[in-house]
Write a structure and sequence with these properties.
Layout: H1 2-8, H2 10-21, E1 28-33, H3 39-52, E2 57-61, H4 72-80, H5 82-93, H6 95-101, H7 103-127, H8 133-146, E3 152-156, H9 163-172, H10 183-186, E4 188-194, H11 202-209, E5 214-218, H12 226-232, H13 241-251, H14 255-265, H15 270-274, H16 280-290
Parallel strand pairs: 1-4, 1-5, 2-3, 3-4
């Protein structure tokens, strides 16, 4: 994918976006683009850069199928990073080594530190009565994940977020909340939005996006790069200019569709069906092949 990223401008965008969110004071950014232009890859690379600096990352993705379930975006993401949360809680309190060396002292310290943590959380709960118990618990978990470092929160496909997750995200962006949860004052946020689909909760989504500091847009690659991209995806043969033009028109620059079409054309008798007359039945067969499984965020 890195070879393709250098052709499409994604690699340069990763560098610029990583630099932008690292600035002080903490910055929040919007990454938007058409479907299949490589937003997910950019987010993964920015997240990797952040982790390589020893900083935690929390990624929550919108799910069209789960958009009716309350707080599903946060809850699903917390389940995925459960191990990191448990490790951070132990690391933060420093219990692990003591418990190994002196079991009784370790147990006592474990009890005392846990009591302190619970006392702190009770105070935070009392200071945020406008948040329900589930919302407060999510903030506690993010607080544990952040530790003493700068947490990067990646909000992927915000147009598919459920309304309760959006409301909590709006609270998180409110500077007043950082008085109770200090880790939020150092946190960074990257929001991705796919252009085209209208958000179910458009008004609330726009309110959130209005609080971001910068906007970045990723477009489809230029048609002239299609031959090299298909070669990178594994196409052995060289096609004619008309054939490349047809493929670009069919896939509209969507990288995942290009990858799947390359796989299709690498099979027999795929090319024979599609060429040389560009007939409609051949195109229908090719589209069915591409649509046979859900298009994920692999590109």
């Amino acid at each position: 994918m890195r070879e393709i990223a250098s052709l499409t401008g994604q690699e340069e965008l990763v560098t610029e976006l990583s630099y932008a969110i690292a600035r002080e004071p903490p910055q929040h950014a919007l990454l938007e683009g058409v479907p299949g232009c490589g937003k997910s890859w950019v987010l993964r690379q920015v997240s990797k850069t952040w982790r390589d600096l020893g900083r935690p990352v929390f990624t929550a993705t919108g799910d069209r199928a789960a958009s009716a379930r309350g707080l599903s975006c946060f809850v699903n993401a917390l389940v995925l990073c459960k191990t990191d949360l448990e490790f951070e809680r132990v690391r933060k309190t420093g219990i692990a080594k003591i418990a190994t060396a002196v079991p009784m002292a370790g147990s006592l310290l474990s009890f005392l530190v846990e009591a302190c943590l619970q006392s702190s959380e009770r105070k935070q709960r009392s200071q945020t009565p406008h948040l329900n118990a589930s919302e407060q618990e999510i903030l506690f978990q993010l607080q544990h994940l952040a530790g003493s470092s700068e947490l990067l929160v990646v909000v992927d496909d915000i147009q598919y977020w459920d309304i309760d997750s959006l409301r909590l995200l709006k609270f998180i962006l409110n500077p007043i909340l950082s008085d109770t949860y200090p880790f939020l004052a150092k946190a960074r946020l990257i929001v991705s939005r796919t252009l085209g689909p209208i958000a179910k909760y458009q008004e609330l989504t726009e309110e959130i996006l209005a609080n971001l500091h910068s906007k970045w847009r990723l477009n489809y690659f230029e048609p002239k790069n299609l031959p090299e991209i298909m070669r990178i995806f594994g196409l052995k043969s060289v096609l004619s200019s008309d054939q490349y033009a047809l493929i670009y028109a069919i896939c509209a620059g969507h990288l995942e569709l290009i990858r799947r079409l390359t796989e299709y054309l690498s099979q027999e008798p795929g090319p024979a069906v599609l060429w040389p007359e560009f007939n409609t039945p051949g195109l229908d067969i090719m589209r069915c092949s591409i649509d046979s499984s859900p298009i994920g965020s692999g590109i």
